[in-house]
Amino acid sequence: MKYxxxxxxxxxxxxxxxxxxxxxxxxxxTLRTLLRLNxxxxxxYKKEIINNKFNIILISIVIILSYSVYLFNEKIVILLGSExxxxxxxxxxxLFISSIFFLLSSPKNIFMILLSLIFFFGAxxxxxxxxxxxxxxxxxxxxxxxxxxxxNVHNLPTFNGATNxxxxxxxxxxxxxTEMNFLYRVFLLIFGILLPxxxxxxxxFKKLVKQLKIPVPPITIGIFLGISWLACxxxxxxxxxxxxxxYYFAANEIWEFLSAFIIANFGYYFxxxxxxxxxxxxxxxxxxxQ
Length: 290
Fold this sequence. Notes:
Shape: globular
Largest sheet: 2 strands, antiparallel
Number of helices: 13
Number of strands: 2
Strand order of the largest sheet: 1-2
Distance between the termini: 42 Å
């Protein structure tokens, strides 16, 4: 006896056949009924997975390879996670690429312009606006205030996680509302995950987004922002104790690198579909998206 679940089938042993039939009464939610339910992803998610399968596979591979650095010794991890090395440099590079993609996708859309500026600012901040590349001196007043004595905004006490330059005390509660790294995470959560989910499941919100022509990224790519963050927290919890603090700090650098890489995939998505008038439309509303 066979019952179909979606496109799959299962075989029920003959001895169990009578038991299943006993459950098939008018007054009970039967196993037979349960087995015949069409348990599957909603069509819009299936469509996203098909259209973005290359990005999904690529991002998965990059996440695995990036955190695999912890298979090496402490010195290699610290080196790759240090200033101006692989992960920090990669973060700046992908944020800069994202900025270009977003701008070229729709240079007349105000939201695309704002996103492009945000990612360009992030790239500049990551490299301290070329301070170490061009070897220029940091103005003394900024040097004295900046937590890391660098030429950037996010390490100023107002925008940094530390309360001041000479303190290791971290901001708590409402103080974090001006912390740039915290705001960056909130932005990614809203833009990369909550926005596409809201467009899929809240009719009023979807209508508003369409009217304003707000770019809606694919949730099947955005979900990797959460996956990579959870992987970072998991790794920090299972790493052995007693190593240099920079060994553990490298995990956060890897997450920032991965978030920038995922954002670059958003940018490519919009650039690739720039001729299809997708702004303000999520993927289930149009067959034009490639």
